[in-house]
Amino acid sequence: MQVTLPLQRLRLWWENAFWVIPLVGIVLGFATSRAVQGIDATIGSAEQPLLSASSAQTLLAAIGGGMVTFTGFVFSVILLVIQFGSSAYSPRTVTYLMRARSIQWVLATFLATTTFSFMTLIGIGSAGQASTVPVLGVAAAVLWLVLSLIGFLVLITVVSRRVTVDSLIGTMGSLARRQLRRHHTAARGRAGRRVREVPDLADEARTVRYAGRPGQVVGVDAERLERLARQHGAHLQVLVRVGDPVSVGAAVALLAPRIGTRLPDRELSRCLLVRHERSLKHDPLYALRILTDISLKALSPGINDPTTAARSLAEVEGVLRVAAELPLGPVVVDAGAGKVVLPAATWSDVVDQALLEVLEAGIGQPQVTRCLSRMLTDLLADVPPDHHAPLLRHQRRLRHDIRTAHLLEQPVWLDGEGRGRGGR
């Protein structure tokens, strides 16, 4: 979360650059064709070649043209599969599915095969000799074709695995746990202190309005904010955190500057890295948001798949266990005479994001209420006592909603202590 923006911009560019690896495939196909043509010209042979020029042309044209059609067909099918998966789980899973490096490398192999075949085809009959046949080039084209077929099998395996519900939910859970730990480690490396509540600024603090393109906050340049606060002796409280949407003119910070100093809104807006969509690698709670969306989608009347919701809640429980071990909350950084307050999710924020909406939608689904009841009871037994308040709040609401819906006729769903006795 607190990283320099140039480095994070580079990481985000690489994360979103779907075209780079396929372009490498085109360059590799062109370079290998030139190298093989050079070897063919050096080796040469006065003997009768293994292939005639017309046979070589036919074979290379078939490989190149066939790969163009094959590539278009395969990726049309892949896009349809990804679209189906996103509609079944959550539209936000498209980013995860499309940015698989294995898919990009397979596409690069297809494009390299096409480029190599056409470039070798052009070389037939070159140097003024109509009988020149690049035998090594034809063999290399066949080798590229074999690699493409192997890549196709890999592609089918990867895509089918990534759109499988259990694999997708498991990956989102792993990402959520890893990003929470990583961002906690990055925040701990700063010369700041965690606080439970954000300190109030002076009454003369003014509101800083965002001046930039709208989108989602994916990064905050804490070093630059600290430097500005130190130079101007200002107290600065950031109001938006990673994952929040911002639009032009939105309040993004409170500023209490030293008398005689002035910090323009545009200068402070440059400390926020804003993109069109959130990032799974730089947003500690985005994967948890996707898990919640998957549960809500599964519990919608049109789908009615409580088993998927229960599977997602199992991963959510793991995320909450990791979050309970971390000192969450805002960070206050002392910058000389100034001060910077950086917002961050608290334990209560994480619990609410994980359970609030699912609890609302899951009433009436015994499988989900059992899972929620067991989860809350187990977490209350394992997390520190100072983390009990939000869990108890959700447990009381769950029990009240179940009673209201007259679902307590089957005691196997929920016992008097809030523990489900009917299994998951």
What is the secondary structure topology, with strand pairs?
Elements: H1 5-16, H2 20-43, H3 53-88, H4 93-98, H5 101-123, H6 135-162, H7 165-188, E1 192-194, E2 206-209, E3 215-220, H8 222-232, E4 235-238, E5 245-246, E6 251-256, H9 265-269, E7 272-275, H10 286-298, H11 306-324, E8 331-335, E9 338-342, H12 347-362, H13 366-382, H14 388-404
Parallel strand pairs: 4-9
Antiparallel strand pairs: 1-8, 2-6, 3-5, 3-7, 4-6, 8-9
Helix pairs in contact: 2-5, 2-6, 3-5, 3-6, 5-6, 7-10, 7-11, 10-11, 10-12, 11-12, 11-13, 12-14, 13-14
Protein name: DUF2254 domain-containing protein
Keywords: Membrane, Transmembrane, Transmembrane helix
Organism: Terrabacter lapilli
